[in-house]
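User: two proteins, same treatment. go.

Assistant:
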Amino acid sequence: MLTPILRKYKKIDKIIDEVCVVETENGPRNKFRGRIYENQQELDEDIQRAMDLLLGEVGNDIDNVGNMFIQTKKQDDPYWEDSARDVLKAFLWAMLEDSDPKTCSNPITEDTFSFNTILTVISTFKDDEGTYYNDEGYFTNREKTSRAYVLAKNTLIENGRPTRKCIMGSLMTKLAIFNEVAMRLITSCNSFEITEIADGPIAIFIDYRDELKVHYQVISLFIQDAYRFLIEQANEKPNGKLDVPVYFILDEFGNFPALKDFETTISACAGRNIFFILIIQSYAQLNSVYGTAVAEIIKDNLNVHIFFGSNNPSTLEAFSHECGQQTRISPLSALNGKSADIDTYHIETIPLIPKSMLSHFSPGECIITEANSGYVMFSKLERYYLCDEFKGLKLASEKEYTCNINPFDKRYTYVMQKNKKRSRNPFDF
């Protein structure tokens, strides 16, 4: 999740390597990204511009990570969540700054650029009973132009002890998902490269315990990170689309925490060859997580709806309405007249698929609707594991799959080194 940020940051120093000397009619000249330069100042400006642009992309990536982990839910009092997000971004910038072996004796590597390292660093901080928050010089000994220092200065360094404790408390609440040993281990190392998703064909299965809410949070973070990467890949293509379609099949989607700006995500993904299949128990789940207005936008952007059943009356009513209505001669017309002839015919409009039908499906039966198709399809899903072709096959088990990555390897653990304090009170400037 974080590794691509570090790799992009490392590319900044390599931009200068793109400069080469070529022979021209006027003698040897510098060439950079297809342009030959007569003026050294122009070359320096273009190199700096390229570095600034890439640094800006790194900043955007860090902002995205901060927004994924810490969303502002308390709109009436956003200060604490906004400040906690800034502290998280300060840690990310600090790790990037500490990845330079020229300036850091114990540099951050791809193996230690993780949330495990952030928690390790936080564990060394001591909010003494006195007047200052002791960070062992982690932020305070940095240059004042450091992005990490600037973010920490506005949230920790210049705030009073009660405010600092509340901000750090808010941050630790958001990072609590990594206190679970399994979560901390699987996010400390990479068992596959995110770039593999776009190469295809590949399938990624996420095994989780559906009774643990923390697992849904981590899955949501992975989905958002994978989608963001795929969008970047699609934007680099001439046609703006991935060469291989990618499908996110999200079971129990109603239990996921809200994905930031998902209504925008799902409306823009199809044009880039990215598709979402959301499996929910009822529309009420979407309404609860995203709110009625956003939930409606999400449903509107899902062109195909497949209904297998639901116990929620509102969902039955809504899907029945989605299927449309039909007009027919009312059976009550037979009551009009004194003989076999009917005097008056009554026309009535009824649901094409009534709620009573939707609530009495047999296993596998389903109703399918497609946007702008003009039809409603009744179908039956054939369960592959009941087919004769699969009866002789051995059922797969996750225990059969092994990983060559050992998350307990010491190389994934960052050893915090004490920095020399600048003054007795590192927060006095």
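Protein 2:
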Amino acid sequence: MPTPDDNYSKSEAFEDRNLPLDTAPMLPLALQKLDEIRDILERMLLLAEASADPAVEDAERAALQKRLDRLRGEIDAIAAESGWLYER
């Protein structure tokens, strides 16, 4: 595989990995999946901020952690179902 210092064109780098050059059809799906993950991360941030409040009791904090774990699972599921985007 070429290193960043080598003077390979993008097309030569793609040929080395046997990837098709026309990846435009994948772009809308990739952007959709990134938007889904961004939305989940924003919800996770809100939950983390709520959990950091000193007024939150341990039981509520545990419930928030369960929600965070579920959201992390959603991100993992999105990554698994779109794994073909990253296959070499």
